[in-house]
Write a structure and sequence with these properties.
The chain is an alpha/beta fold and 273 residues long. It has two domains: 203 residues, Rossmann fold, CATH 3.40.50.1820; 59 residues, no CATH class. The chain contains nine helices and ten strands. The strands form two sheets. Strands 1-2-4-3-5-6-9-10 form an eight-stranded mixed beta sheet, with helices on both faces. A two-stranded antiparallel ribbon has the order 7-8. It is globular, with a radius of gyration of 19 Å. The chain starts with a strand and ends with a helix. 38% of the residues are buried. InterPro entries: AB_hydrolase_fold, Hydrolase-2_PEP, Xaa-Pro-like_dom.
């Protein structure tokens, strides 16, 4: 049996493409790590790092599932048809698939806005999870989407024939139930509006006790950002066991060229012990 297995998992809105890593130890998998991906182009930019990390998890005896949400990657559907409820259901679907494979303990591993999807999913989840690994968590869905909308505003500024736009106007179009296209992605209001309502103050991980937060910084002098500090304090007040890991490295999810941060991979594996 190959240690890496591509699979299509039947989902609510369409089949979900996934890569399943068996434990490299050759043992029958009892514990697994499920990756909750980043948004849009950040997901594509991060694929190499995600694959590298998955292989290291497998070497440590974990099964790992990397999947594409509905309308993204090699999963069925169009991005323009994706809604937040569909994506939440996708997470539920792949969790159930892992359980059907005999997995007893599932940990979640998010990148960027994936933490907000994981958080919202956990509100209604029926199972207990082992731990949460958060890579560079997005702490405010509205700010995140406003930054994404500015990509279209910037593109319009570069095109002298284009009508000038404001991110706030594009946001209002979404709130009014209209579809907005940004950087080649057609945004459904039922995908974006729920995401904009999520932020760190209402992050609750009631079904996870052990949480590891990883923040990348450009230099040792930077230190932990105020937003991450606030998140850590909030989680600790709710009796979560929280560890924060600061890693010097490039923002691989947004760099022009595909980038690697080996130290992040090392620290993430070490956090499991």
């Amino acid at each position: 049996m190959s240690s890496v297995m591509p699979v299509f998992i039947p989902g609510q809105a369409g089949r979900l493409f996934a890569i399943y890593h068996h434990p490299a130890t050759g043992e029958k998998a009892k514990k697994a790590i499920l990756h909750i991906p980043a948004f849009a182009e950040e997901m594509n930019k991060s694929r190499r790092m995600i694959a590298m990390q998955a292989r290291e998890f497998a070497k440590s005896g974990y099964a790992v599932l990397i999947f594409d949400l509905f309308g993204t990657g090699d999963s069925e559907g169009k991005f323009s048809d994706a809604t937040w409820e569909i994506w939440k259901n996708d997470v539920h679907t792949v969790c159930q698939w892992l359980i059907e494979q005999g997995i007893l303990n599932i940990s979640l591993w998010s990148l960027r806005s994936g933490i907000l999807l994981a958080m919202d999913f956990l509100e209604d989840a029926k199972i207990k999870f082992d731990r949460m690994l958060c890579w560079q968590p997005v702490l405010n869905g509205e700010i995140f989407i406003m930054q994404f909308l500015r990509l279209r505003v910037a593109a319009a500024l570069m095109d002298k024939s284009a009508h000038p736009e404001k991110a706030s106007d594009l946001k209002q179009q979404l709130l009014d139930g209209k579809v907005v296209e940004v950087a080649g992605y057609t945004l459904h209001p039922d995908l974006i509006n729920p995401l904009m309502k999520l932020f760190s103050d209402n992050i609750h991980f009631s079904k996870i006790d052990n949480i590891n937060v990883f923040e990348l910084i450009s230099s040792c002098e930077k230190g932990i950002s105020p937003g991450i500090n606030k998140l850590i304090e909030s989680l600790q007040q709710r009796a979560h066991l929280v560890s924060v890991h600061v890693v010097v490295g490039s923002s691989f999810w947004s760099t022009q060229e595909i980038a690697e941060v080996p130290e992040l991979i090392t620290q993430t594996v070490n956090s499991l012990y």
